[in-house]
Amino acid sequence: MAEVNQMVVVGNRGKKVRSDCYVELQLTNDGGVAIELKSKVEVMFGKANRKLIRDIFDFFEINNAKVYVEEGGALPLVIAARVEAAIKLLLKSDKDYLLDMIDENKNQTDRSDHRISRLYLPGNKPSMMINAGIHQPNGIILDLEDAVAHDKKYETRFLVRNVLRGMNFYGAERMLRINQIPMGLDDLDFVVPHFVNLILIPKCESANQIQQVNERIDAIKKEKNIDYQIWLMPIVESALGVIKAYEIASASDNVVAMAIGLEDYTADLGTKRTDEGIESFYARSQVVNACRAARIQPIDSVFSDVSDMEALARNVQVSKSLGFDGMGCIHPRQIPVIHQNFAPSEAEILKAKRIVDAFIKATEKGLGVVSLGTKMIDPPVVKRAENTLNMAISLEMVPSNWHDTFEA
């Protein structure tokens, strides 16, 4: 039990803070629960927000406390996360105050889903999460690692948990970057039960780290009696990680992609990252080769200059030429540039159509061998052609019924 009058503070406030709230909480000896709410939307939502705060205190059976909440248009899921975090900083409790999960966030994703773009969002800034999905990235990453200050990490876990439950991702894969192992293992308790689709493991340097994550996931699933697929995407960010790329990529069946983080990698080398990427050519090639050998998706690093779209386009073209399937982004304006430049060319689409068409015709005839002209086509080539067409379909470059009108 916390000491009476001990104060905890969570959340954010200030002139530039939007869609968030700030909470000061003290336990008292008597007087009930005194709620002071300063709100920019008092007229419309003040009454509802006070009821929400009081319901949370009732849920945790707190009868004597003083709470000050300052909010700037925060959603109920944000207010609930901030208040609960404050309570749990003072009290030990195994109870979780969970708002209803929306139906849109109950879907699972597939191993072969396109991950051309993944948009990083700081886990402690709800204003950046609202409607992020309307920019149509393939994945949205709620970041608990580099984007969150150390003293904010605990309270941020409650926020990303509530976002997974109640914020519409508009079809984007729901991703979360945990902290570096071993701290990141504790992050899993807050996200595994709440339909996260994919977990990114930063600064990964061994298969053992993958195994540790999966062991914790399995334990949580067993405890919570849940059974749905959670994919993993380790991020290689050091010289050692690059050397062990294949070991990491092939560590588990639920590893579906592996990314490289070039900011940390070049820092580890003691060199400067450049737009030309000469200093990272070996590492990027190593990651692509390891991923292809392990039959998973290679994903390139983010491009940090959000103002230079031409440099980004050139970087994406190089990335594609090296064999990457996608890359990260740190601003929504980067998403269309990434999609446009990773998109297959007309020649690539035509070649893919011919390969898939030949495969379909051979299958219809019951042939065990597929050929195109004088060349034999093996299953990996067909699969890659199918992936090219699926990407073209997802980017609306060809209709989904392309084969009905295709003439080889």
Taken as a percent bin, the fraction of beta residues is 15-25%
Strands, count? 14
Largest sheet: 8 strands, parallel, barrel
Rg (C-alpha, Å): 24 Å
Lateral arrangement of strands in the main beta sheet: 5-6-7-8-9-10-11-12
Report the CATH topology name of the largest domain: TIM Barrel
What structural class should be given to the helix and strand makeup? alpha/beta
CATH class of the largest domain: Alpha Beta
**N/C terminus separation:** 74 Å
How confident overall, as mean pLDDT? 92
- Runs with pLDDT <50, length 5+? none
List the helices and strands and how they pair.
Elements: E1 7-11, E2 21-27, E3 33-39, H1 42-59, E4 65-71, H2 76-90, E5 117-122, H3 126-129, E6 139-143, H4 153-166, E7 173-177, H5 183-191, E8 198-201, H6 207-224, E9 231-236, H7 239-243, H8 245-249, E10 257-260, H9 262-269, H10 281-294, E11 297-300, H11 309-322, E12 326-329, H12 334-342, H13 346-364, E13 370-372, E14 375-377, H14 379-394, H15 402-405
Parallel strand pairs: 3-4, 5-6, 5-12, 6-7, 7-8, 8-9, 9-10, 10-11, 11-12
Antiparallel strand pairs: 1-2, 2-4, 13-14
